[in-house]
Amino acid sequence: xxxxxxxxxxxxxxxxxxxxxxxxxxxxxxxxxxxxxxxxxxxxxxxxxxxxxxxxxxxxxxxxxxxxxxxxxxxxxxxxxxxxxxxxxxxxxxxxxxxxxxxxxxxxxxxxxxxxxxxxxxxxxxxxxxxxxxxxxxxxxxxxxxxxxxxxxxxxxxxxxxxxxxxxxxxxxxxxxxxxxxxxxxxxxxxxxxxxxxxxxxxxxxxxxxxxxxxxxxxxxxxxxxxxxxxxxxxxxxxxxxxxxxxxxxxxxxxxxxxxxxxxxxxxxxxxxxxxxxxxxxxxxxxxxxxxxxxxxxxxxxxxxxxxxxxxxxxxxxxxxxxxxxxxxxxxxxxxxxxxxxxxxxxxxxxxxxxxxxxxxxxxxxxxxxxxxxxxxxxxxxxxxxxxxxxxxxxxxxxxxxxxxxxxxxxxxxxxxxxxxxxxxxxxxxxxxxxxxxxxxxxxxxxxxxxxxxxxxxxxxxxxxxxxxxxxxxxxxxxxxxxxxxxxx
Length: 489
Known about the structure:
- This protein is of the alpha+beta class.
- It has helices at about 1-10, 65-75, 145, 175-195, 230-250, 295-305, 310-320, 325-335, 335-345, 350-370, 380-390, 400-410, 415-425, 430-445, 445-455, 460-470, 475-489; strands at about 15-25, 80, 85, 85-90, 100-105, 110-115, 120-130, 135-140, 155, 165-170, 205-215, 225-230, 260-265, 270-275, 285, 295.
- The chain contains 17 helices and 16 strands.
- Helix 4 packs antiparallel against helix 5 and helix 14 crosses helix 17 (about 475-489).
């Protein structure tokens, strides 16, 4: 009964989702001052009178921010406005020291873009530049402090003034799966451009989810906004919960309230935070301390020409040029460093399919298991190419490479041939030695030998296993098979 009810609700309402993704830009200094943007400093260490909002101070625009925002806009097929401006967005929050935020309102730097996911274009309404707020540090979870009646919050302004771009999508997304795919692709693009590090755990990339429900053919419903969701799993869970919450309200005849909500990770629920403001509530007006921004058209043209190859373009090229699978091309192109290693190994002469198999197989498994990146390992194009060549010429077996070499290269680096010689890992490729070992095994296992002769071909695997056990996996596999066929027959 519950399943039937849920299916009815799912088909009754359509989700309409728009995302506002805030990406922290990888500049060394803040948007309007020379304070460091480095993450992890002691509270209020990276601050000055400008980013702390002292009276009488004047902002000075960081030119790198304009360059990074232009790059992002061009990569997302946006129109760049060469005559944009900054505005004051008025609102009070304890970690917003000026009592307003410098942002962009009616003339953003980028507009009318698109991003393709699942063969579907998601519209990008605008990308605008703005400064980040600070951070509130609460102690309300400290039971000792609660017992003494001393709950309090502290303000850390290290993040205040950090440059952001806010990427606002059109309400074109219809599921949690599409929302996650959109944010993932957006993150890949920003990282490929080297304008954002994409670290969601540190808040470098976070997402506001606007979601409403309606019936087919009806106007969009009233939307609720879920603020600051910072993981792919949380995006999915927040959307699923909000769909369920709004569906139940509509089914019972209640109205959806336009509001801002927070997603609580432990419970998987959203909670009301405040009523949702409209643009007029912020009393936008042009920032009087900054002149309008005039971007040279030659600069826009040059920036477009210098854009790097984007992940989607790289994926298509890898499949067409290197004949690898779409799945392998996606895994490799999603990681800039892994892609560089892939191409670097191929340049040295290694077979592209074999390189792809190693990178998406054993190497990716190691990276995932150790929660590390390829940049933090010792694997290079040179030693990976050498290992693949040694497999190809029969010096080592594929199995030996997997069990005894690849992890050593990842952890310690060095020459593959040196490792093989030092550890005695070279394949046994002498037919006389293999035949002598097999002859002894057959003598020791006459019953299994007789079963093979009587047609039990599967028993051959037993003999292969025995040979590999005795040789510690060093026997050349094809030679073992050939010798077994000869001696068992």
